[in-house]
Design goal:
Layout lengths: L2 E2 L2 E2 L1 E6 L6 H12 L4 E7 L4 E6 L5 H10 L6
Antiparallel strand pairs: 1-2, 3-5, 4-5
Length: about 80
């Protein structure tokens, strides 16, 4: 975890079981990129994993909510 002043940059790998192709990961990347505070999104369709790096004001719960709203809920 990198620190910027009092803010802690966070990074987490989310397993998303209904990823089946690159189009799925592109949709996830596009949606999460629009979330204020999300710094980076990397996706691996074969592993069904998405790595998200974020900073305030967004929280892990908010990221999980966005994933659920776009029908890619994190396991």
């Amino acid at each position: 975890i990198e620190r910027k002043g009092d803010n802690a940059m966070e990074e987490k790998i989310f397993t998303i079981n209904n990823i089946s192709c690159g189009h799925c990961t592109n949709s996830i990347k596009s949606e999460l990129a629009d979330v204020d505070g999300v710094v980076a999104v990397e996706a691996e369709p074969g592993a069904k994993e998405v790595t998200v790096k974020w900073d305030t004001p967004v929280t892990e719960d908010q990221i999980r909510n966005v994933l659920a709203e776009i029908n890619y809920p994190a396991a």
